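Incident review: delayed structure delivery

Summary: a single-chain prediction request sat in the queue longer than the usual turnaround. Root cause was a stuck worker, restarted by the on-call engineer. No data loss occurred. The affected request and its eventual output are reproduced below so the record is complete for anyone auditing the incident later.

Affected input:
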Amino acid sequence: MHKLALASLTLLLAAASAEAARIRYHYAPVGDAGCVQLVPGPGGAQGERLSWIGMSPSPYHTPPPRATRCIAVLHPDSKRFINLPLAVPPDTPRVQHWGSTLVYDYGSESIEIHFLPDGSVDVIYNNGLLRNP
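Output delivered after worker restart:
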């Protein structure tokens, strides 16, 4: 019975992880107008798939989702506004802010914005069953 439960749980987690994703894209400021540009990650990948606890990130060669909105946010370290292209759902998010992180939580998915000390930003698109709120 325990083996059946373990097999079922493994299958469920595998299916969920196939659907769930945490993808990080890194943006750096360009010029003085608040524009940012995507900075390739390891191996020239456009993003990184973030793994669950204990596993290292892996290159993600798919470009960011097509931006539906460009938001202007004040970077807490550089004290300058930056314009971030984001792919946001049509719903109204619950906005959370703590430290150097801003989260747009849409329930089944979220967008995390992590402000880095050098003036750059990590944007993490997070969706699926096992996502972090």
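Verification: Strands lie at 21-30, 35-39, 47-49, 58-60, 69-74, 81-86, 94-98, 101-105, 109-115, 121-127.
Action items: add queue-age alerting; document worker restart procedure.
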